[in-house]
Amino acid sequence: xxxxxxxxxxxxxxxxxxxxxxxxxxxxxxxxxxxxxxxxxxxxxxxxxxxxxxxxxxxxxxxxxxxxxxxxxxxxxxxxxxxxxxxxxxxxxxxxxxxxxxxxxxxxxxxxxxxxxxxxxxxxxxxxxxxxx
Length: 133
Known about the structure:
The chain is built from 6 helices and no strands. It has 133 residues and is mainly α.
């Protein structure tokens, strides 16, 4: 995560300008952490394991992997994908599928702890299933 230099005292607008410097992945992680802080303050009895699972489930595919995957998907769609790029696309697809499988396992464990279905949990937390190209 990059280091961002900020003043010691920030107004809300200054903080927002600082946050605007984050990449998409960093912004999502930041939003989740702020949300987790908000939840923790409202319900400090949230068990640590649930918090850990929520945090893990909200991790995103790293920007560099997602960017390269998107580039290769575009090349595949325009039929300009080389053999080497096709192999790389297969590798990235496998990485993303493993990442998503771990995410679903994490959500399933959280659903089990909360004694609810995975579908209900995802709706409750407003978690969207991954969209594939």
